[in-house]
Amino acid sequence: MTGLGKLADRETDAALGGAFAKGSTAHTIDDVAALSDDEKHPRALSDSKTKKDKVIKPDAVTLDIQKRSEKYQRGPAPKQKGKEKARSKTAQAKLTHARNQRDAAVLEAARSEALLTEESGFMEAEHMERTYKVTQKDLASHVDISSAAKIFDLSLPDFGPYSLSYTRNGRHMLIGGRKGHIACMNWRSGKLGCELHLRETVRDVCWLHNDQLFAVAQKKHAFIYDHTGAEVHCLQKHIEPTALGFLPYHFLLASTGMTGRLVYQDITEGKVVGEHKPGYGPSHVLEVSPYNAVVHMGHANGIVTLWSPQQSLPLAKMLCHKGPVQAMAIDSTGKHVATSGLDGRVKVWDIRMFRALHEYTTLRPAQSLDISQRGLLAAGWGPNVTVWKDALTTQATDPYMRRQLPGSTISDLRFVPYDDVLGYGHSQGISSIVVPGAGEPNFDAFVANPFETRKQRQESEVKSLLDKLAPDTVQLDPMFIGRIDPRSHSQRQHNRLVDARDEYSKNKADGKYVDNNVKNKMKGRNSTAKRFNRKRQSNVVDLKKVLEMEKLEREMRETETKRRKVPEQEQGALSKFYAEKRNE
Q1: Helices H, strands E: what count in the chain?
Q2: 406 and 380 Cβ atoms separated by less than 8 Å
Q3: Using H for helix, E for strand and C for coil, what is the string for 40-52?
Q4: Contact 205/163 with Cβ under 8 angstroms?
Q5: What pLDDT, on the 0 to 100 scale, is given for residue 557?
Q6: Phi, psi (deg, nearest 5) at residue 26
Q7: Mean of pLDDT values over 124-138
Q8: Of 302, 353, 321, 325, nearest to 476 (Cα)?
Q9: How many CB atoms lie within 10 A of CB 569?
Q10: Is the pLDDT assigned to residue 264 strictly greater than 60?
Q11: Cα(396)–Cα(73) distance, rounded to whole angstroms?
């Protein structure tokens, strides 16, 4: 026997001796095997009891990471009651692996916050001072040179009022004057991209997926131009547009106009994927939710409707004001919506409950609204620009910042993404001011990169095209995609049949279907069937009438073919092909 064998025998004897020493009645190997693990290894049992008694409390760092990880959760955690839900061990292993990956991603995202170099901060006043009394001149003297250069005014009095738009990374700005002046530029470096004079009315401008293409709502149709100013497309389905919106993850351009219709058009394929008519007349208010890509439309009767491309009816309706809706803004989380009406009120709504939280009053109706990435609410009314801090969750008593432009009228305003800057267009041109704490200080390069290079832009464009979402994924709850229907195939089929029967019986009771069980009591002119056919409207087309028309047409074609004399060239070996051609 080798040394390893002797060592194994000694360990076995020691284990058996330990078991016998504890007073056990086992005298054979089978009896020892029948012992429990706790009886075989009493030391392990004592160690486990000691570990259970010692409860390790999480330290401050762990608690901080757990608190930060809450905002990175994407929907509720998958519910699982043991292993009975998985049909096999392989499926159970896959579920466990997916759950572990999800938890690890959330944990890593929370831990990565320690590497962030920038912090957000607001302007705070001391004692009796007020932040809204601080002017841009005072700010320019206390900030760095690069931030002070962001305060500027462009005097363009001949082609205003102006509307403006920023790219998703906040690097480029697009302006459009009502009298046909279009210009795009890198506003940080002051480099002009292109400048056009369309000599036609321009009602709105909008960037598309990046700074290479932009859309312009002109007098008759919507047009797409590239960054050099060359006209790329004329979208004739968008008739007399007044407002534009772009869905970046679906590559859909949405517009509304004087016709009152809402049109969705895919800019990658060029086809119209949705066209709806709310029936409330012309509209000039349209906003796209950055959370679920649902389009919000404001109407002249004070109603706000929510739309999806593939549904003919609105997802929801809200009566927001007693008069026409003038402007609208949606925050980045998709939870709050701000609306302004002709009644001079700015209301904040919780879109989850469709309930008004609080409202603000302006001396004139606000013509434009916007919400920053950090939750600041800006309103442009008359010659004034007012910014409220924490205006969505609580009722702000005093404004955060305020600016007045005498002799001008504010037409449009937008916060710059990832920067503490607010740009607004007015009748005299374009202006830009610094609003401390407005932008998100840390950006995600996979979503939008303010410092991206040409190569990175090209790669992100290809990746976004590959990850393009279908139009039917636009819903109020974007988490419905990953859900699983627990019903079996037979149960779903049975429910479909029950729903179809209920719908058929309801429509038949309402008189939408023609009764086919008509008794022919007489053969004369006043028979039951003939009297019924005379009463039936000629423009009503049902399934039975369509089948009868097809049958009559087929019989007439066959009769004509039989009467027709077959030419000599159609006889012989090739007569089969001529017969098929005649039947076509």
Answers
A1: 13, 28
A2: no
A3: HCHHHHHHHHHHH
A4: yes
A5: 82
A6: -75, 130
A7: 88
A8: 353
A9: 9
A10: yes
A11: 29
- Cα end-to-end span (Å), the chain: 93
Residues 6+ apart with CB under 8 A from 421: 150, 415, 432, 433, 434, 435, 438, 439
- How far apart are alpha carbons 398 and 131 in whole angstroms? 9
Of the candidates 551, 548, 581, the one whose C-alpha atom is nearest the C-alpha of residue 566 is: 581
The pair phi, psi for residue 550, each rounded to 5°, is -65, -40
Planar angle of CA 248, 286, 345, nearest 5 degrees:
130
Helix or strand (DSSP H, E) at 426: strand 421-426
If you search the block for the tokens 């098929």, which residue do you land on?
580
Residues 374 and 119 sit within 8 Å (Cβ to Cβ):
no
Select from 171, 173, 237, 76 the least CA-distant residue to 430: 173
Q: Are strands 181-186 and 173-177 parallel, antiparallel or unpaired?
A: antiparallel
Tell me which residue has tokens 């491309």: 309
Distance from C-alpha of 169 to C-alpha of 245, rounded to nearest angstrom:
17
Query: How far is it, in rounded angstroms, from Cα 15 to Cα 29?
Result: 11
CB 395 within 8 A of CB 358: yes
In whole angstroms, give the CA distance from residue 368 to residue 88: 57
Here the tokens at position 224 are 């797409």
CB count within 10 Å of CB 321 equals 25
Chain-centre distance for alpha carbon 143: 36
Cα Rg, the chain, nearest whole Å: 36
Strand segments, DSSP code E, in 427-567 are: 429-434
Q: Which amino acid is at 205?
A: V
At residue 532, the 3 state secondary structure works out as helix
Structure tokens at 172: 């480029």
How far is 417 from 401, CA to CA, in rounded Å? 18
Query: Based on the number of CB atoms within 10 Å of its own CB, is 163 exposed (0-12), middle (13-18) or buried (19 or more)?
Result: buried
Quote the CA–CA distance of 400 and 241 in Å, as a whole number.
35
Residues 6+ apart with CB under 8 A from 449: 169, 443, 456, 460
Asked whether 314 and 338 are in contact (CB, 8 A), the reply is no
Tell me the pTM.
0.70
Question: The tokens of 33 are what?
Answer: 């095997």
CA atoms of 301 and 465, how far apart (whole Å): 39
Residue 425 CA to chain centroid, in angstroms?
27
What would the pLDDT profile of 429-465 be if each residue is shown by its tens digit? 999 999 999 998 888 888 899 999 999 999 999 999 9
The reported pLDDT for the residue numbered 85 is 60
Nearest to 276 by CA among 260, 265, 288: 260
**Can you read off the two tokens belonging to residue 52?**
């259970």
